[in-house]
């Protein structure tokens, strides 16, 4: 393709991404009862308290995705050096893609198009390492929280509780073992004939040492604390009578279950709301407030960043080196 054709196609791709993203966002926000419920519930609360929480949620959202950008930049050190700002741009751009793609798979494309063309596939593999790290934290903490939930709210005999504890221990050990030996994947793939020609893309896995993986996991844990705090702030605003420990443990279960369910980001609010109301029903009867709290965090954590990321979509260059 000549230069003019590439330029035209690039413009078409950008317009298509923005139309899809804003179309999905508009459709979901135009008929969202939970967000309306949140506004109604907050009318009975002191206005300064509501604004303090909302500003806190917004600042924590920025912190959350900045931490993700720092993790992404760190993972790319052995692939391609990028600035912190460029990492932030690519993360927000990826969130714009994520809202209309299943399981947020578009997030990979949104990020890697900020890399040099030859580094993009390797960049996807590097990003997957970070995703695995986040999954490990979500699954390990979520499994232990589920064990607490069963012991607290389910009347099961000692043998069943012991068996569940054993299963959780094996489950968590598997995830930790897999993550800290992620280079095994490179070795396994090298033995598969039809994958051998593409092994150079996966060889980056062998370059991540234990200390690198520990640091990445540190970013994942910090992010986990940040978005757990967001939920705690808004739930405590609407339902202050829920004990903090129970609130946190149920949130860990929600993150665990939601991470295992395939969905679109925009449809994910329904999944989140149903899951949240089921588990929180054990500690409160304020079902509407729980759904409203979930919708509020969803709006601030995913929809606002997706809108912000639309500005960075315009900077993408699909056929060559992205502009700085």
Describe the structure.
The chain is mainly alpha-helical and 324 residues long. Helix content is 75%, strand content 0%. The chain has 13 helices and no strands. The chain has helices spanning 3-30, 33-42, 47-75, 84-98, 106-112, 120-153, 158-180, 184-189, 199-202, 210-238, 244-260, 268-280, 287-313. The model has no long low-confidence stretch (mean pLDDT 86).
Compile the SSE list and pairings.
Layout: H1 3-30, H2 33-42, H3 47-75, H4 84-98, H5 106-112, H6 120-153, H7 158-180, H8 184-189, H9 199-202, H10 210-238, H11 244-260, H12 268-280, H13 287-313
Number of strands: 0
Q: Note the beta-strand portion.
A: under 5%
What does the average pLDDT come to?
A: 86
Structural class: mainly alpha
Distance between the termini: 24 Å
The SSE order reads HHHHHHHHHHHHH
> Mind describing the biggest β-sheet?
none
Q: Which outline best applies?
A: globular
Question: What integer value in Å does the Rg equal?
Answer: 21 Å
- The helix content is over 70%
Q: Based on the structure, what is the oligomeric state of the protein chains?
A: single chain
Q: Keyphrases for this structure?
A:
324 residues; mainly alpha; 13 helices; 0% strand; globular
């Amino acid at each position: 393709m000549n230069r003019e054709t590439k330029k035209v196609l690039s413009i078409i791709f950008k317009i298509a991404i923005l139309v899809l993203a804003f179309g999905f966002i508009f459709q979901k926000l135009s008929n969202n009862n939970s967000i309306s419920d949140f506004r109604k519930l907050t009318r009975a609360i002191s206005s300064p308290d509501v604004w303090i929480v909302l500003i806190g949620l917004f600042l924590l959202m920025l912190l959350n995705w900045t931490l993700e950008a720092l993790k992404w930049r760190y993972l790319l050190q052995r692939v391609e050096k990028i600035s912190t700002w460029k990492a932030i741009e690519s993360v927000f751009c990826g969130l714009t893609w994520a809202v209309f793609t299943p399981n947020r798979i578009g997030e990979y494309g949104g990020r890697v198009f900020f890399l040099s063309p030859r580094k993009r596939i390797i960049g996807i593999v590097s990003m997957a390492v970070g995703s695995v790290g986040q999954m490990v934290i979500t699954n390990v903490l979520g499994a232990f929280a589920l064990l607490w939930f069963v012991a607290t709210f389910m009347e099961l005999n000692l043998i069943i509780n012991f068996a569940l504890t054993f299963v959780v221990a094996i489950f968590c050990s598997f995830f930790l073992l897999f993550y800290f030996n992620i280079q095994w994947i490179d070795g396994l793939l090298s033995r598969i004939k039809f994958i051998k020609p593409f092994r150079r893309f996966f060889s980056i896995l062998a370059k991540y040492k234990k200390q690198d993986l520990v640091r990445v996991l540190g970013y994942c844990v910090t992010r986990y604390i940040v978005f757990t705090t967001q939920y705690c702030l808004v739930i405590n605003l609407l339902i202050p009578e829920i004990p903090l420990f129970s609130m946190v443990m149920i949130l860990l279960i929600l993150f665990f279950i939601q991470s295992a369910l395939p969905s679109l980001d925009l449809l994910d609010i329904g999944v989140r709301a149903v899951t949240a109301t089921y588990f929180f029903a054990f500690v409160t009867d304020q079902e509407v407030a729980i759904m409203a709290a979930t919708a509020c965090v969803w709006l601030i954590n995913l929809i606002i960043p997706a809108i912000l990321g639309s500005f960075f979509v315009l900077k993408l260059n699909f056929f060559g080196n992205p502009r700085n």
